[in-house]
Amino acid sequence: EYVRQLRNMAGNTIFAGYVYGERLAALFRHCALFVLPSDLEGLPIVLLEALAYGAPVLASDIPPNVEVLGDHGEYFKAGNVDDLARALRACLRESEALRRNSSELREWAMVQYDWDAVCDATERVYMGVTGR
After folding, report:
1. pTM over 0.85
2. Counting CB atoms within 10 angstroms of each CB, which of 22, 27, 51, 80 has the fewest?
C-alpha cells in the first residue's frame, strides 16, 4: 500500500530499482538532483559516485555527508521532513546554478578522494602507528 501511494504521488519521479553500468551512469549524469537522505553512513560511497558523475547533490547533514561535501554541499536536517521539503524546493528552483556548481564540486571531490592520495594517507597512518 505504501509503495502504491508513493507511485501515485510521484509525478515524474523514477523508481529505478537496482541498476548498474551504463544505465546507472546515465541516471547520475542526467538527474535533476541526487538526494541522499541517510540517517547513518560510514563513508557514503554513493555520494562520491554521484559527485564523480557530476550530479547536483542534496544530502542530510549527518557528519559523514558533511565530511564529503564540506562547505560545498547543500544540506537538510537529517530526519526532518519539513526541512527536506524546503531544501528540495530550493535546490530545484536553483537547478541550473547547482548543475554549474556540481562540476566544481566534482573536481574538488576527485582531488580529495583520489585513490592515490587516499592510499598515501593510509600508508602514512600505518607507518606512524608502526613507528616506521
Report:
1. no
2. 22
